[in-house]
Amino acid sequence: MIARLQSLMQSSFLRAVAVLSGGQAVAILVPILVAPILGRLYVPADYGALAAYMAPAAILAMLASLQFQHAIIAERTDHNAALVGWICIIGSLTISGLSALAVALLWNSVLMQTATGAWFILLPVTLAGTGLVTAGQFQANRHRYYRWIAALQIIVMVTTVTLSILLGVLGWGANGLLTSYFLSQLIQILGFGCLLVWGKTALPHPSLRRLRMLIRRHWKFPAFTLPSEFLGQMNMQLPVLALTAVGADATLGAFTRARQLVSMPFTVMGHSVGQVFRREGSELYRRTGSCRRLMLKTAGGMFSICLVPCVIFLIFAPWLAVFYLGPDWREAGELSRILAPMLLMRATSSPVSNVYFFTENQLLNLFLLIVFTVVMGAAFLAIFMLGGSAHLMIYTFSAVYFGFYVVQFLIGLMIAGPLK
Question: Residue 268's pLDDT band (boundaries 50, 70, 90)?
Fold first, then answer.
């Protein structure tokens, strides 16, 4: 038993996870610790205004790099992988320009009619920065710069939370949250931008011929992965868009805060494990033709770790919300209880879902998302037609996505290769 434990601790996979999850744990612990302060400085409607901007921004961000970032991991040579970074940046600048045109067209007729409308003038900047951040992050992952990623996570979170508290004390309300959000984006752009300028991760001089060759080689990512990621993000933001449409600002804020806080225990390792699994799993699959054993160990470990917080939220969430965030936030606790089982399955399935990408089963992943998008859309349409409540929308969202993650994981096991 001791020998096995020593073997695990010496594993490069676990060391990488430890570095990334350690940085993310600190980055997540900070907002948890200050949540009682933020809960008394901001009301649910303030977080609803933040969500009203973040939802469309997150959906459009899926288009920014055209999902070519996955080719940075898939490429066999570091030089070609770095060139793919240019494709991500060019794609994001193109999407940013189109978004600037859309903002200009909708400025008076739509955007200025909403509480956060003026902030949408920064949407093109958000999308332009997304490509650079994505390219830098995947380059760092390829070269195992896990300490850099972890340190940047901590800096972003500490700075953002500090500014949120300061602006909350000054009474900025929703504008304080939005200002802090944009600051976090700026820090990430500067941090990952440095990687693309210096060192082994620096982008080489682009060659138009080579870029065209790489686009032809990795055409499956924009053809199949892009629609998959877009539909996945659309589904995740569907409750936000629906609650915004019906004017349920307080419930929207409670839902946003609940999802943000409840997902923290589930994502403290999930994102880090996913990054490392993407790197190690793809290498193992290329070498042996199978990564099923690693996939089972990774998913099983995530389920075991996240089961305890799931049970705690199911039993105590409403009381914890009132005690920790303040009396205005009981609804957030009730919504946390609804979301907990879905987030448990998300933590189990999502980190290993990269198996669809490096086994070149993007079309299968797209098919699954189309099926569940149709199911989700039909369910929400029925709720609207029958005059269902906002809480029923969230119950439906949680149930449908729970089923999706179960199916996604089971089919992922099938394509991961035989058990070796």
Answer: low
pLDDT at residue number 16? 58
Give the relative orientation of helices 146-169 and 249-288 as an angle to the nearest 10 degrees: 180
Q: In sequence order, which residues have a C-beta less than 8 Å from that of residue 351 and are 6 or more positions away?
A: 270, 271, 273, 274, 277, 298, 299, 302
Q: pTM for this structure?
A: 0.77
Chain centroid to Cα 101, Å, comes to: 26
Q: Is residue 27 within 8 Å of residue 237, measured between CB atoms?
A: no
Last-in-domain residue among 217, 243, 267: 217
Residue finishing a domain among 217, 248, 263:
217
Q: How confident is the model at residue 89 (pLDDT cuts 50, 70, 90)?
A: very high
Residues 60 and 95 sit within 8 Å (Cβ to Cβ): yes
Q: Are 225 and 362 in contact (CB under 8 A)?
A: yes
Q: Secondary structure of the chain: what % helix, strand, coil (to 5)? A: 85, 0, 15
Domain coverage including residue 271: 219-420
Say whether pLDDT at 404 is over 90: yes
Q: Which residues in 253-289 are b (16+ Cβ under 10 Å) and which e?
A: bbbbbbbbbbbbbbbbbbbbbbbbbbbbbbebbeeee
| Better-scored residue on pLDDT, 28 or 65 | 65
Task: Name the residue type at position 90.
Answer: I
In which residue are the tokens 């409403």 written? 318
